[in-house]
């Protein structure tokens, strides 16, 4: 996130009458606001929001076993709604408000008109825009954590976990690394758009939570085929295209740096996907669609901390690394590690986000271009990639940057392991973290009384069944019986 507060758009004595009437300031358009930047920031926020709703809802719903499609999608939908309410009530000010301690802000609301209409702490747009933009980042982090817990977590436990983790883990990482008053932010760590705050956090927290929740049923662990690969691809496509706003919105301006970040993002993702695909072909003999999606995600994750501060050739190198190193940890290291095999990480969030996020942070420390860092941060010589330090005879700057990048990884890992464990232990005192074995055998109907696909009467239920939903009684039961009878008649005629 940019730490440079842009200068006022006009000199103090500027004659506003010289502007076209649609650009003249008024009560709804104060002189400090840029309509273009505000519009782009709202669009970028919406693109990021669509990565979650419907992007990850569709991806999760299609990537799991049929009996878990509703539960998996609903975990994402619930998290999105819950995070927004918590965000405006206390989360935003904890993450970006006045300093309480070097790693945390003061508790306050972001709901009052007077506050929301003020200029944001960075950028030429109001707080209302910034609050929404930062919310979609917080929401997707919780939804990524859900990916490690699909197929067995008690939904009531998830309902408690989301607000607690947002409050006591996410806000600490966001304030420390992104806030202009944060400890690592002031030291000069580079995290352009969330390689640490979002991806490393979600990967470590998801893996830690998966340890405490426990594994899926033995049957599900042995065989867990996607119920709809095409639907999963649609969700992956929304995730990929939504990354335009994810990385393109972080200069807080419709600037040349935003353009570079967008291009680098897609170049790295494409390179990573192709690298993963080639490795699958070489070692397994077939091009895997699921593998291609994993490669796409690792590329997007790895370029995120570097997107606007590296050159295009560095984006390709990052893509090559993100398509090969997480592939190796997932396909080779995972199968040889007892710890990795013991923890049931359903969507391999540890590899795609923790490993790829750490990799991206380290590569950022190597390839960060001082000129591009100046365009983003507004400071010369404070942000210096290691290789540029060697080139320019500023080895100390390069070593310092690498040290900060590694310190950031250590900080995020420790915070998330500790806080996630404490939250899981607390939730466990209130409700079980894990569904019962009987409910895990049933899946969606046991958890929600609903199922994803009702084909030829598979959606019909008896009131005595454990998974009966009140919503099916009046709203859909009649229609389901009618459709089933029609389908049955057509089959009998054939």
TrEMBL record:
GO terms for molecular function: ammonium channel activity. It comes from the Eukaryota. Keywords: Ammonia transport, Membrane, Transmembrane, Transmembrane helix, Transport. The keyword Transmembrane helix applies. Belongs to the ammonia transporter channel (TC 1.A.11.2) family. NCBIfam families: amt (TIGR00836). This is Ammonium transporter.
């Amino acid at each position: 996130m940019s730490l440079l507060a842009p200068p006022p758009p006009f000199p103090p004595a500027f004659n506003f009458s010289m502007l076209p009437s649609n650009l003249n300031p008024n009560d709804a358009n104060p002189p400090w606001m840029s309509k273009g930047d505000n519009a782009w920031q709202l669009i970028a926020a919406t693109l990021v929001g669509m990565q979650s709703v419907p992007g990850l809802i569709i991806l999760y719903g299609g990537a799991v076993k049929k009996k878990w499609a509703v539960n998996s999608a609903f975990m994402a939908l619930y998290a999105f709604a819950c995070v927004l309410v918590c965000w405006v009530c206390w989360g935003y000010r904890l993450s970006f408000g006045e300093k309480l301690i070097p790693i945390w802000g003061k508790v306050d609301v972001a709901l009052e008109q007077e506050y929301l209409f003020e200029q944001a702490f960075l950028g030429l747009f109001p707080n209302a825009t910034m609050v929404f933009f930062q919310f979609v980042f917080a929401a997707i982090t919780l939804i990524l954590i859900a990916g490690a817990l699909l197929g067995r977590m008690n939904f009531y436990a998830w309902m408690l976990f989301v607000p607690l983790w947002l409050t006591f883990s996410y806000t600490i990482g966001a304030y420390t690394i992104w806030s202009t008053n944060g400890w690592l932010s002031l030291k000069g760590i580079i995290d352009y758009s969330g390689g640490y705050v979002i991806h490393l956090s979600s990967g470590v927290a998801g893996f830690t939570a998966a340890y405490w929740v426990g594994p899926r049923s033995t049957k599900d662990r042995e065989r867990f085929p996607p119920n709809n690969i095409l639907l999963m691809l649609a969700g992956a496509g929304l995730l990929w295209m939504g990354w335009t706003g994810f990385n393109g919105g972080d200069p807080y301006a419709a600037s040349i740096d935003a353009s570079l970040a967008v291009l680098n993002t897609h170049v790295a993702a494409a390179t990573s996907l192709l690298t993963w695909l080639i490795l699958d072909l070489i070692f397994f003999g077939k091009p895997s669609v699921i593998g291609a999606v994993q490669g796409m995600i690792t590329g997007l994750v790895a370029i995120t901390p570097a997107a606007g501060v590296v050159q295009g050739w560095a984006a390709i190198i990052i893509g090559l690394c993100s398509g090969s190193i997480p592939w190796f940890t997932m396909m080779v290291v995972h199968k040889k590690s007892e710890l990795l095999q013991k923890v049931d990480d359903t969507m391999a969030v540890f590899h795609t986000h923790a490993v790829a996020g750490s990799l991206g942070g380290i590569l950022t420390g190597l390839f960060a271009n001082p000129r591009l860092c100046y365009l983003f941060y507004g400071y010369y010589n404070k942000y210096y990639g290691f290789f540029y330090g060697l080139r320019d005879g500023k080895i100390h700057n390069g070593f310092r940057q690498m040290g900060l990048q590694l310190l950031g990884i250590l900080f995020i890992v420790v915070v998330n392991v500790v806080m996630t464990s404490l939250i899981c232990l607390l939730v466990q005192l209130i409700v079980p973290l894990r569904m019962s074995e009987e409910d895990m055998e049933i899946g969606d109907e046991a958890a929600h009384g609903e199922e994803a696909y009702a084909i030829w009467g598979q959606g019909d239920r008896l009131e005595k069944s454990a998974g009966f939903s009140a919503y099916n009684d009046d709203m859909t039961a009649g229609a389901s019986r009618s459709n089933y009878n029609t389908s049955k008649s057509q089959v009998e005629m054939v």
